[in-house]
């Protein structure tokens, strides 16, 4: 078993680097393209409406890019008073938010206030998620936000909230880590092979780099014992 440990080190290191790459890309996706971090990609996909009891109607929309998917919930209101629409119009656009994956929906619409954005980021698969919630508006440019499932950062120059997602989307996190881990393993293996060839050309032990000048071919390295 001790002799196998050095052989497993590149694989373990590649797995760690694969996980780090997965997290880095998922965080980077919150800031690409510039200025879209909090609304996410442009909310071009109108999913529809869903009624919360007899008091509120929520408009649900989605934005998607190669890096980032956002589902946004907006309480249809004006000046603090809920808007209402004819029953026939509502039925034509009704969309049950509970059909969405868990990472894109609240446990209950009662958990929301006016706006909420549910983010899933990562490439090539979603790996991390978080949600940003509008809690209270004190003034036009003074809105209190909270972040769930992520790390809230200081606001940007336009007072928009910033956050890093921390909640794993386990299947996507595992697949991304495996993909990047294989890529890193290839790079580490190629680098190690190039280093061994370079040492051999310079009459050094390919294992530890100790000088083997003057030793017969096939002799063990006097430093590490590698043959």
Helices and strands in order, then pairings?
Layout: H1 5-28, E1 45-52, E2 56-64, E3 68-75, E4 77-78, E5 81-82, H2 87-93, E6 115-121, E7 128-139, E8 142-148, E9 150-153, E10 162-165, E11 167-168, H3 170-201
Antiparallel strand pairs: 1-2, 2-3, 3-6, 4-5, 6-7, 7-8, 7-11, 9-10
Describe this structure in words.
With 227 residues, this protein is α+β, with helices and mostly antiparallel strands. The protein is built from three helices and eleven strands; from the N terminus they run αβββββαββββββα. Strands 1, 2, 3, 6, 7, 8 and 11 form a seven-stranded antiparallel beta sheet that branches. Helix 1 (5-28) packs across helix 3.
Unreliable residue stretches = 1-5
How many E-type strands?
11
Shape: elongated
Order of helices and strands: HEEEEEHEEEEEEH
* Sheet of most strands: 7 strands, antiparallel
**Pairing-aware structural class of the strands and helices?**
alpha+beta
Please report which band the strand proportion falls in: under 5%, 5-15%, 15-25%, 25-35%, 35-45% or over 45%: 25-35%
- Separation of termini? 20 Å
Note the total helix count.
Answer: 3
Oligomer designation: single chain
Helix content: 25-40%
Task: Evaluate the radius of gyration.
Answer: 27 Å
Average the pLDDT over all residues and give the rounded result: 83
